Amino acid sequence: MAFAASNPVMPTALKILIAGGFGVGKTTMVGSVSEVPPLETEERMTVASVGLDSLAGIENKSATTVAMDFGRITIAPELVLYLFGTPGQHRFWFMWDDLALGALGAVVLADTRRLEQCFASVDYFEKRGTPFAVGINCFHGKREWTTEQVRKALDLGPDTPVMLCDARDRESSKKVLLALLDVARAHALARTASIPGV
């Protein structure tokens, strides 16, 4: 008796960016949720960055991402998320257009001690029309601002999720990613509904 060979499942790959300013926890978030050892391009900071990278509020930072971080999460056999952490320093922003190509959406990490570090990320995704969620990375458990205060400071509408999180914690980071998937789905449905005859 012959058995039919099972057809292998070809997963749909979804690309998500983890963005934000310098030193907000992007590498940490990718590492906390990735099911595989993440690819990191962290290099030691040297005197060459003096005057270019402000360490105000993050004086103990000794390494920085110089290209990107990469991780993977399998949601189901037919659905895989690929996470790309962007470099935060202004001099590496030329890479963002390539990294953002084909992205479903983005998580913008914010540090309320240096909220201005995420302004450029928010502007970038708003101009591209890319759905995004904001994760307020609560370093050492500090919750100095509420989500509504951050929403107002960033001038975000009610459709953009703004959540407190801890980038070191897998479950906390997953909640931000799930909120992003919800808003990306709503964005895709709205776009489809606006196409005549669909």
Number of domains: 1
CATH homologous superfamily identity:
P-loop containing nucleotide triphosphate hydrolases
How are strands sequenced across the largest beta sheet? 4-5-1-6-7-8
The CATH class label is Alpha Beta
Strand pairing plus helix content: what structural class? alpha/beta
SSE pattern, N- to C-terminal: EHEEEEHEHEHEH
Query: Which segments are poorly predicted (pLDDT under 50) over 5 or more consecutive residues?
Result: 45-50
Helix content: 25-40%
Q: What distance separates the N and C termini?
A: 46 Å
Keywords: ATP-binding, GTP-binding, Hydrolase, Nucleotide-binding
Protein name: ATP-binding protein
Family: Belongs to the GPN-loop GTPase family.
GO molecular function, one term: ATP binding
Layout of helices and strands, plus pairs?
Layout: E1 12-20, H1 26-33, E2 42-44, E3 63-65, E4 69-76, E5 79-85, H2 96-100, E6 105-110, H3 119-128, E7 132-137, H4 147-153, E8 162-165, H5 170-193
Parallel strand pairs: 1-5, 1-6, 6-7, 7-8
Antiparallel strand pairs: 2-3, 4-5
InterPro entries: Gliding_Motility_GTPase (IPR052705), Gpn (IPR004130), P-loop_NTPase (IPR027417)
Keywords: ATP-binding, GTP-binding, Hydrolase, Nucleotide-binding
Family: Belongs to the GPN-loop GTPase family.
List keywords for this structure.
six-stranded mixed beta sheet, 198 residues, P-loop_NTPase, ATP-binding, alpha/beta, 8 strands, Rossmann fold, 5 helices, 27% helix, globular
